[in-house]
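Incident log, structure service

09:12 report received: a user says their structure output differs between two submissions of the same chain.
09:20 pulled the input from the user's history:
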Amino acid sequence: MGTSSGFTLYIEDRAGKGYSALRQATEKLVELANQSWVLMDVYIDGLAEGISVSLNVDREKAEAFGVSFDDISQAISAASGSYYVNDYTDNGRVQQVIVQADTAYRMQLTDLLKVSVKNKTGEMVPLSAFVTAAWAQTPRQLNRYQGYPALKVTGSAAPGESSGAAMAEMERLASELPQGFKAEWAGSSLQEKESTAQLPCLFCSLSWSYLWCWPRFMKAGQRLWL
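09:34 re-ran on a clean worker, output below:
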């Protein structure tokens, strides 16, 4: 077993249940882990959730108004942040053209919905005709591990416990995760797990080499003695 007491693993959402379900399952696992006498300092490693704007685009309505999704995306980008248009040359130097709404017109959530988008016939349609907006609690960081949405969990073994014992305890607790979620080791913890799994094969290989070589060594020794 390893001498380092720290461990790292990811909780993967393999069933596409969504971030909220993934967060809830991981928080429950961390809660159980911190109640175990084998483990300590177990936590979700990453940025906490924050307040952001959730936009819901009704694509059927947008299509009925003759507005493409790309045009909607560009309008929202320009209004809430900035949008690159093109370059131009000024006195021999290349300058970028960046479109951005003035500060006074992007301070409130309702300001965003007042932005208009040109449709296929050249008419201006406000975003409020097919976009709804609301404040929401959302993740500020989205991780993936082995292609699946995942949350990173780190922790340590309690004093007097090895990393192997801590990893075994985490595996026991992770076996109680809801269906669709799976724990996978990462970093040095994954290397330790793989090396530990190879120990029986290495032992068998050494034992076979010993049994194969020892009779020949004894015969050679006998001949040398004679």
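09:41 both user submissions now match this output. Likely a transient worker issue. Closing.
09:42 reviewer note: Residues 44 and 153 are 5 Å apart (CA to CA). The chain has a mean pLDDT of 85.
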